[in-house]
Write a structure and sequence with these properties.
Elements (H helix, E strand, L loop, with lengths): L4 H24 L6 H56 L2 H21 L2 E12 L2 E8 L12 E3 L4 E8 L4 E5 L6 E6 L5 E7 L2 E7 L11 E4 L13 E8 L8 E7 L8 E7 L35 H7 L1
Antiparallel strand pairs: 1-2, 1-12, 2-5, 3-4, 3-12, 4-5, 6-7, 6-9, 7-8, 8-11, 9-10, 10-11
Length: 315
């Protein structure tokens, strides 16, 4: 068709008619007057569309196959990477046995105290913002971890959660100078507050300045209101020294903690507190005293020694 004035007018007219039909179709909805024409067009052109689709489908299928193949390859690579990370995480046989032993002891403590715990692995120590005694564990908010939850291991109290990320959390250790926990003496009601002193024993201030305490006595956590940040009954440590009572309102003790804070690996975050205070049931059995061997010395008179009577006869 030539580009003439008449052809341009015809094109404008056809465009106007098309817009008019679109408007009528939209406003008509299901009862549109052009619905019959649409169905007729579908009847006429449907087979042609199907044929074109059949011709194009092999190409589309090939593209999909290539895309799926790439996705499978990426997935296999990801799985191989995960397996390698898992193998590295398990480590050697000796380390695996050590971890299983730690986990077993921790689960035993959790069972005795009726603590609901979330197991975790220590993945970092220290803190970027200072020199506090902290560790980072590989569980976080996505695992139900919240700030001010108690952390323990198979030996006893480790610390409390201070910062929580999506998949990690920071734990302030009980050895940190800023750490304080309420304590209770075993088989008694003497209460106090234990504070961290770095690599030195915990310092405990008993509320009763006249309390009868001796070396070897043991302490557990007293617990906090609503069990945050501390649940009750978690073993803390053993009294190693008692300052003389000076008649003050408090009495100072020094406690060797059960936990070795420089060799932490597997820990548990208490996500569910016990319904009842376990008191002293979580403490390990007391070591039996080693009997000291006794030596009996029997003195017998020597045959060569002279008898007093014989000496007198010889004289």
């Amino acid at each position: 068709m030539r580009d003439t004035r008449e052809s341009r007018l015809l094109l404008v007219l056809l465009i106007a008619i098309a817009f008019a039909l679109i408007t009528v179709d939209i406003r008509g909805g299901e009862d549109s007057p052009v619905d019959g024409a649409r169905q007729g067009a579908a009847t006429v052109f449907g087979p042609i569309e199907s044929g074109v689709s059949a011709a194009v489908d092999p190409v589309g299928n090939a593209v999909s196959a290539i895309r799926d193949s790439g996705e499978r390859h990426d997935r296999l690579a990801a799985l191989e990477k995960e397996n390698a990370a898992l193998k590295a995480r398990l480590g050697s046989d000796d380390r695996s046995r050590s971890r299983l032993k730690q986990l077993d002891k921790m689960l035993k403590i959790a069972g005795q105290g009726r603590y609901g715990i979330k197991g975790a692995e220590v993945i970092a120590i220290g803190a970027a913002q200072g020199f506090s005694w902290t560790i980072t564990v590989d569980v976080g908010a996505n695992d139900g971890i919240k700030r001010d939850m108690t952390v323990l291991n198979g030996e006893g109290l480790v610390g409390r959660v201070t910062t929580v990320g999506p998949n990690t959390a920071t734990v302030l250790l009980a050895s940190d100078p800023d750490f304080t926990v309420g304590t209770r003496m075993e088989s008694g009601d003497e209460l106090g507050f234990a504070s961290g002193q770095g690599d030195r024993p915990l310092r405990v201030e008993l509320l009763n300045g006249k309390a009868e305490v001796k070396k070897g006595d043991r302490l557990v956590t007293f617990g906090s209101q609503a069990d945050r940040p501390f649940v009750p009954g978690v073993p803390v440590g053993v009294v190693s020294r008692v300052d003389p009572s000076g008649g003050g309102l408090t009495r100072t003790l020094y406690v060797t903690p059960y936990v070795g804070f420089t060799k932490l690996d597997i820990v548990g975050v208490v996500v569910e507190a016990p319904k009842k205070d376990p008191r002293d049931t979580v403490l390990p059995p007391k070591p039996k005293p080693t009997p000291r061997p006794t030596v009996t010395v029997t003195v017998t008179p020597s045959a060569e020694a002279p008898v007093d009577g014989q000496n007198q006869q010889e004289q």
